Amino acid sequence: MAAHKALLERARPWSRVRTKTYDPDLRAELVAAADAVTPIPQVISTYGVALGSVAGLAASVARNATDDEVTTLIQEDRPRRPFVLAAALLVELWREMSDAERGDLANQARESFLEELASQDWSTEDAWVGNEVHGAQIFTPWSHWTSVEVVRTALEDALDAAPERVDDIVLTCAPG
What we know:
- This protein has helices at residues 2-16, 24-36, 51-62, 67-77, 83-99, 103-118, 135-145, 148-161, 166-173.
- With 176 residues, it is mostly helical.
- The longest helix is centred in the middle third of the chain and has 17 residues, at 83-99.
- It is globular.
């Protein structure tokens, strides 16, 4: 935990100073750290060290990457698993690119997130592995960018196809 907190402290200046140069090595370290903390629920006591915060710092570090570099990051992040890792990185990159008024890149991150969601088969056990405590980080942006009905239908279809997924859905969607 000490090493994790030290990494986050090294990255925090990028979230405060908007002109810092992109550091690909630091971003890679943050992605590895984000992967390591996916089992930790995002609750008040873990907020500063959990997935959302780490993904946010990774996006801040990438803020001043070139368009080609950001496009490459999106392509690298999209297939990451568990899915919540891809979701957190893409959503935070969308947020950072939007804030930086880099709309084309923000849209690219959002579309990659939505396309990857569309390819998920939520009726399989594999779709839920590693996502157990992060339903909000997956389903909230999905419903925001599409609709609540789209998410509801996807989950209903998963339950119709595999009723045994009910425990996965309840655990993942339960508030933290």
